[in-house]
Write a structure and sequence with these properties.
There is one protein chain. This protein has two domains: about 140 residues, Cytochrome Bc1 Complex, Chain D, domain 2 (Orthogonal Bundle), CATH 1.10.760.10; about 120 residues, Immunoglobulin-like, CATH 2.60.40. The protein contains six helices and eleven strands. Strands 6-3-2-1-9 form a five-stranded antiparallel beta sheet. A hairpin with a 5-residue loop joins β10 and β11. The longest helix has 13 residues.
Length: about 280
C-alpha cells in the first residue's frame, strides 16, 4: 500500500515537469508548500550601487569617501546564483578592512549575505561569488546594499543600495531561458538513460506516449511543437525548453495547468538528468 502511494505521488509530481512547468512570473511554493512571496527568475541581471558616506547607518566619523560597485548576477538554477563584480572607492579615512553585501532596506542595517573582500583595494574584482537564495531575492528586490568597512568606521564607512536590472538572454528579460541555446545529442545512451529516469520518477503516470490526454501533456510529438503558456505567449518546445521545463518546473506554465506540483514534492531535477530526459522525450514521435 505504501509503495503504491509513493509511486502515485511521484507520478503526480512529474506531471509538472514537462509542459506544465515554467513560470517565474508566478509565485512558486516553497519546501513547505507555501507560496514564495519573492519569486526569483532565472536569467542575468546587471548590478550597480553608488557608495557614499552619508548613506551609512549609523553616520560614520570623519568620512567623506565614495565608491561604485558594478556586477552581473547570473541565475541558472533559481533561486541561487553567482555574482561577478568590481568595487572601486576613494577618499576613505584609511585602508578598507572589508567589504560585503548585506541585506537591508535604505536606512536600515542588516546581516552579511555575500563577503566581497578583506582587506580591499580599489578596483578589486572577482569573476564568481556565490549568492544564496536570500542574497538573490534581496538583490533583485532592492533590499541589499554594499558596505565598505575601515578601522575608523568598523560598522561601515561608505554604503550604497544595489539596483538590479534584468538583461536575460536574447529577447528574454527576467524570464529568459538560460538553456535557450543548449542542444542534447540524440545518442542511444542518452535516450536509454532518459527512459530509465522517466521510470524512476514515474513520469508516464501523467505523460502518455501515445497522444492520449492525461494529467500532464502527452510526450508524443512534444519536442518541436508549439506550446501555449498562461502568459498568452506561444513558444517552441526546443531542447532548451524541455530542459528548463524539467530543471525549473515553475519558470513558465503551460495554459491549462498549475505551478508548484513538482517543486513542492521533490524540487528540481538535476541538469544532467534533465538533459537525458530531454533526449528520451525527443525520441517519442
Amino acid at each position: 500500500m505504501k509503495k503504491r502511494l509513493r509511486i502515485g505521488v511521484a507520478a503526480a509530481v512529474v506531471a509538472g515537469a514537462v509542459g506544465v512547468g515554467l513560470a517565474a512570473a508566478h509565485s512558486s511554493p516553497d519546501a513547505r508548500g507555501q507560496a514564495d512571496p519573492n519569486p526569483v527568475a532565472a536569467g542575468k541581471y546587471t548590478l550597480k550601487a553608488t557608495l557614499r558616506a552619508r548613506s551609512e547607518v549609523p553616520r560614520p566619523k570623519g568620512a567623506s569617501g565614495s565608491g561604485t560597485f558594478t556586477g552581473t548576477l547570473t541565475i541558472v538554477r533559481a533561486p541561487k546564483g553567482t555574482i561577478s563584480w568590481r568595487l572601486r572607492f576613494s577618499g576613505l579615512t584609511g585602508r578598507a578592512t572589508a567589504a560585503h553585501i548585506h541585506v537591508g532596506k535604505v536606512g536600515k542595517s542588516g546581516p552579511v549575505v555575500v563577503p566581497l573582500c578583506g582587506p580591499c583595494v580599489s578596483g578589486v574584482h572577482k569573476a564568481s561569488s556565490a549568492a544564496s537564495a536570500t542574497a538573490t531575492r534581496a538583490i533583485i528586490n532592492g533590499t541589499a546594499y554594499v558596505n565598505v568597512h575601515t578601522q575608523a568606521n568598523p560598522g561601515g564607512e561608505i554604503r550604497g543600495q544595489i539596483t538590479a536590472k534584468s538583461i536575460g538572454n536574447k529577447g528574454g528579460g527576467a524570464n529568459a531561458n538560460p538553456y535557450g541555446n543548449m542542444t542534447v545529442p540524440q545518442t542511444a545512451a542518452n535516450i536509454a538513460r532518459g527512459k530509465a529516469l522517466s521510470a524512476k520518477y514515474s513520469c508516464e503516470g501523467c505523460h502518455t506516449l501515445n497522444g492520449a490526454k492525461s494529467t500532464g501533456p502527452t510526450w508524443k510529438g512534444l519536442a518541436g511543437s508549439r506550446v501555449h503558456l498562461t502568459t498568452g505567449k506561444t513558444v517552441v518546445a526546443t531542447d532548451g525548453y524541455l530542459i528548463w521545463s524539467i530543471e525549473q518546473p515553475d519558470a513558465q506554465i503551460v495554459s491549462g495547468y498549475s505551478s508548484g506540483i513538482m517543486t513542492t514534492a521533490i524540487g528540481n531535477i538535476p541538469l544532467a538528468e534533465a538533459r537525458a530526459m530531454t533526449a528520451y522525450i525527443k525520441s517519442v514521435k
